[in-house]
Amino acid sequence: MSILHVNQIAGALHRMFDGCIDLADTPPNPDDREKCFLTRALAAFAVAQLAGITPPEAAKTVTDGNGDNGIDALHYDLASKTMYVRPSEMARRRQWISRPIRHAEIYQGLR
To answer: Which of 36, 41, 53, 85 has the highest CB neighbour number within 10 Å of its CB?
Structure first.
């Protein structure tokens, strides 16, 4: 993915989630703070799209932080009885990393 695409995605995430994503626990360094925002916003975006919820609702699903075992967002849809578990990360060079999460990782994260 080119840097142009990554910048367009980052801009869209800012338009959708600025002011919605909790950044209280992020480092004061602006670059680190931006990486945390983009990682959390990407996870929230995925949940919003999959679960059909609004960006502010999706922002509340973000669980990213120390000791999260790679799980960045959780949402349970009561109507469909579906649990959405989302890992995501914005790498240092602003490349998106999204990988499948193994069942063992989910279990470890929920213990």
So the answer is: 41
65 vs 27, more confident: 27
Q: What is the pLDDT of residues 35-73, one digit of tens each?
A: 889 989 999 999 999 999 999 999 999 987 767 777 889
CA separation for the pair 6, 76 (Å, rounded): 29
Residue 75 carries which DSSP code?
E
Helix, strand, coil % over all residues of the chain, rounded to 5:
45, 15, 40
pTM of the model: 0.78
SS3 7: helix
What is the token pair recorded at 100?
């499948």
Listed by start position, the domains of the chain span 3-110
Coil, helix or strand for 97? strand
Closest CA to 85 of 53, 67, 110, 54: 110
